[in-house]
Structure formats: C-alpha cells, structure tokens
Inverse folding.
C-alpha cells in the first residue's frame, strides 16, 4: 500500500480545485454538443469526471494546434531572436491512462537527449497531470491490448492519480509538487480495503473490452506486408484524405512552420501548426512527392503507429484510444486492417506458394 494515498470526499475535491484555480489554469473534460472535450475550466462544476472518451486528448494543451515559436527582429545588419518564455501553470484534470501514455510518447519525441523542443519543454514543465482511472470502456477502445490502460500502472511522468470510489476518490500522489499541494488538506490515509476495491474495479473493467488487437509479431508482420491488398483497397474505396484521424490522434506530432512578416520587414513571428501525413502536400520535396497515392499515405499512418514507431521511439505510437476510427467519416479502423494483414500474411503465403 503506497504511503502517499488518501481519501478525499467529492465535495471536498471540488472545493480544493476551486482553491487551486487561484494558482493554475484548470483543464479538464466537459460536455460540448453531445461529446466530451478537454477544455479550460471556468466553473469547477462543469467538469464531467465519469466521461468515457474525449474528441481530442489533452495533447492540445501541451503541443498546441497553432503556436508561436519565436519572434525574429531585424536589427542593424543582423537579427535577434526572442523565444516564447512565459506560459501559464496548468493542471490537467481527469487524464485517462491511454492519454497519459500518449503524453509520455510525446515526451519521447520532443524531449530527446540530443534535442529538446523549447515550447514543448516549457509547457510540459508548467503542467501538472491529475490522472484518472477509467470507469467505462467504449466499443472503440483497445488500450488493454496496447498495454496502456484502462488503469494507470505507471509510477512516474504524472502527479496525481484518482480512482472513483463512489462518494469519494482514492487520491495518490506521484510527485513532490503533488505532495505539497495535498499536505494542507490533512486528508485521511487510504487503507487496504480501498486498494482491494481499486483492484476489483480494475479486474471488472478489463473484462469489458469488445475491441482487441494481438500485438504478437505485429511489427514484423506489418513491415513484411507493405504490398498487402488491404492498403490499396481501403485507401481507394474509403479514405477521403480528410486528415481527421491524425488531428484526433493523441500521439501525432507532425507540424509545419510559417513566418508572419510585418509590412516593414522588421519583425517576423515564426508560427507552427499541426500538419498531417494524410495530406497530399505533406510528402512534397522539391517538386516530387514520395507519398503521392492515398494507399501510401494510409499505409504510412497505420505502419508508423503500429510498427516503425517501435524502432524510432521504443514503443507503439498507438495507445489504443479508438479516436481515429470513431472520427473517420468512413470509420476506417486500423485494427481491422492490421488483423486482415495478420490473417492473410501475403509474404508468408507467397513464400509457401499460396499467393
Ligand atoms: S492511431 Fe487511432 S487508436 Fe491509436 S492512438 Fe492514434 S487515434 Fe488512438
Ligand atoms: S479520417 Fe478516415 S477518411 Fe479521413 S484521412 Fe483518416 S482514414 Fe482517411
């Protein structure tokens, strides 16, 4: 039983958040037009803590859809560069296990030892994360297959962990900052029975998944089947190239950069915005395009998330949230494509003389 685990009544939890609002921007799940979204919280009572999934993950508050990287000033014969320095302290509330894993995936991308992205580091350092164990499973969720949920089994990379226990939360702290914020509350320690309840909730939820994906040899199988007919068929018959899948995916990190230059050419804001490998222009290099077909672009999305990401970052790029298939206008499902490849492994069949 962890030492820094307490019980907090839900009423007291709300009052505590109102107090924290004096020091942090609160970001959490709210309902909007029939869906849940992560949003800036003005009224703590707007929070919906028993949500199933959100349209976008909390990525958009750490890696913004559009943000200034720096301002470049022309001065005498040279230039000076002013980077973004001030970002508000924020608390992300109610982050599910899959989305927590997605943030840790982005950490691997943006906080490499060899190069650290200035804006991302600044926001990440000024963000506290309050994770929340799931209470529901959506038909499109498959986090249990990807080893990323439905309960948080990590012990670093975040600050608090909540488990809904009815009238109260079990709240655990995983950082010094979290301990300091909990200390003045003088909360009662959580006892063994609460941890037994947590384990019971976890086991019950694990048994409710409808969607799954067998990841055994998945990397190799996908990489050996770059010319499998599923890519061509799905892309040509169903993919509209709308980029929804990449916009909602909590691990997508591609961006483009544009310069906004003043009329007198003395000042330039360098701005970046989310880009997508599903757009035709994305792979244009010097007049040529190395992914000019929809087949190549769709295959890139699926094989990057489920295969080449592993070589690049040491983990899958898919955390099993199911957003891409839910928000795809034609409900293209990357697990179904992967399963079709697994079922009819063309390379193996050719080698065995069946294809
Ligand atoms: S690829 Fe799809 S299921 Fe996987 S993390 Fe991205 S949006 Fe979620
Ligand atoms: S959301 Fe669906 S239709 Fe749109 S680009 Fe992605 S796979 Fe294609």
């Amino acid at each position: 039983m962890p030492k820094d685990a307490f019980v907090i009544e839900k009423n007291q939890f709300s009052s505590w958040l109102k107090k924290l609002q004096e020091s942090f921007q609160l970001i959490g799940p709210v309902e909007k037009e029939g869906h849940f979204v992560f949003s800036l919280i003005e009224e703590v009572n707007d929070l919906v803590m028993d949500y199933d999934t959100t349209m976008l993950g909390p990525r958009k508050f750490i890696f913004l859809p559009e943000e200034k990287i720096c301002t470049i000033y022309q001065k005498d014969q040279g230039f000076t560069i002013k980077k973004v320095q001030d970002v508000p302290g924020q608390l992300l509330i109610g982050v599910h296990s899959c989305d927590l894993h997605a943030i840790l995936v982005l950490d691997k991308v943006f906080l490499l030892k060899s190069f650290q992205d200035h804006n991302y580091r600044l926001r990440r350092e000024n963000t506290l994360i309050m994770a929340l164990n799931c209470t529901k499973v959506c038909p499109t969720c498959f986090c249990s297959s990807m080893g990323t949920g439905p309960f948080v089994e990590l012990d670093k990379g975040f600050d608090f962990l909540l488990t809904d226990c009815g009238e109260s939360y079990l709240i655990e702290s995983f950082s010094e900052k979290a301990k300091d914020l909990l200390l003045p509350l003088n909360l009662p320690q959580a006892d063994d029975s609460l941890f037994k309840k947590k384990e019971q909730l976890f086991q019950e939820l694990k048994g409710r998944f409808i969607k799954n994906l067998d990841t055994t040899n998945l990397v190799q199988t996908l990489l050996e089947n770059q010319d499998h007919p599923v890519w061509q068929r799905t892309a040509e018959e169903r993919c509209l190239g709308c980029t929804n899948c990449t916009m909602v995916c909590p691990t997508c990190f591609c961006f483009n950069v544009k310069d906004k230059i003043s009329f007198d050419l003395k000042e330039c804001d360098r701005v970046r915005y989310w880009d997508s490998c599903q757009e035709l222009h994305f792979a244009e290099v010097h007049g040529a395009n190395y992914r000019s077909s929809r087949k190549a672009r769709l295959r890139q999305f699926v094989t990057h998330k489920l295969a080449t990401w592993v070589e690049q970052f040491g983990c899958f790029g898919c955390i099993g949230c199911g957003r891409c298939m839910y928000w795809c206008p034609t409900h293209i499902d990357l697990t179904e494509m992967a399963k079709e490849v697994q079922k009819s492994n063309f390379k193996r069949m050719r080698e065995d003389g069946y294809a």
In short: The two ends are 56 Å apart (CA to CA). The longest helix spans residues 294-313. DSSP finds 13 helices and 13 strands in the chain. The mean pLDDT is 95.
